[in-house]
Amino acid sequence: xxxxxxxxxxxxxxxxxxxxxxxxxxxxxxxxxxxxxxxxxxxxxxxxxxxxxxxxxxxxxxxxxxxxxxxxxxxxxxxxxxxxxxxxxxxxxxxxxxxxxxxxxxxxxxxxxxxxxxxxxxxxxxxxxxxxxxxxxxxxxxxxxxxxxxxxxxxxxxxxxxxxxxxxxxxxxxxxxxxxxxxxxxxxxxxxxxxxxxxxxxxxx
Amino acid sequence: xxxxxxxxxxxxxxxxxxxxxxxxxxxxxxxxxxxxxxxxxxxxxxxxxxxxxxxxxxxxxxxxxxxxxxxxxxxxxxxxxxxxxxxxxxxxxxxxxxxxxxxxxxxxxxxxxxxxxxxxxxxxxxxxxxxxxxxxxxxxxxxxxxxxxxxxxxxxxxxxxxxxxxxxxxxxxxxxxxxxxxxxxxxxxxxxxxxxxxxxxxxxx
Lengths: 205, 205
Fold this sequence. Notes:
Structural class of chain A: mainly alpha
Radius of gyration of chain A: 19 Å
CATH superfamily of the largest domain in chain A: Tetracycline Repressor, domain 2
Order of helices and strands of chain A: HHHHHHHHH
Oligomer: homodimer
């Protein structure tokens, strides 16, 4: 067993991995401890319940996406390039995960949302905050594009919400089809939701 | 205990209700039998495993949506009216369920997809077939609209896939926000995906 802080990190990382692979309900505390190479006592030293642990696993997942968004929003890019970079970043992450794991596991935030949002209020609020942060990131890019005259007329709040919905829905269909290419295909439609100032024409095809 | 056929129907209906409320993994065979007022022997008379039961519960859910789509596709409606009727039907179903249950439980097909698609191949295929049937229904309406000159240029296959993704993603966000109005708001964007022949302008706002 490693140092205390190391043990806590290992429990969170192991739980994040197992919850993503099999869901929250299907994975028990004993299994998380076994896989992390720690005793149950360590678990209860750091966490009162499995619920406490999943809240920290959600922070882990959210950090991955925060890093991805930060990398995509390089200031020398146009707003449209930033938008495309975030979406391609998400597709790339999904494809790499599918390659590593041999199948589509979806989005860890979306998975937990559908499994737990109606069963635990603290988890629901935490997941909703993650989605809110994604909506805010898209909204910022859309407002920037509007200010710079890159985009035709659009409502940045509603369009940002629609983009997050589209990415989550595409991920759900991709997981069900076990085919990561669904995400890339549907995400292309996002471009159709963001009109150019000159053309204002937007079909997803 | 009722007649055999009645007992089987009760097991399926009870399982469909409990899986929707709490997910597949969290609900055990003993609980389904208790809630249906039947002995475990009855369960194993009709089903080998809980997996067999969930496949039939999926048929139950799918039937609800088939009925909804059939009602929406009245032949005297324009293609756009049919499209809007399907989408409003889905929103209405979601709102009524949220009202009955006191909170958003999402879409039973989408919930099972994210919980189980990566864990069981038979369930994944069954859920994928349901999504395929929804894509096919939207595709039919889109082709009809194109043939009648109601819609501007669009790819019916890809647009149908995008619509299903959007509805599923909106439902996921609505469940996470515990707010059924998210679905109605995002689903409005679908109208922006289907251009009119004259205007060809489509922003979701």
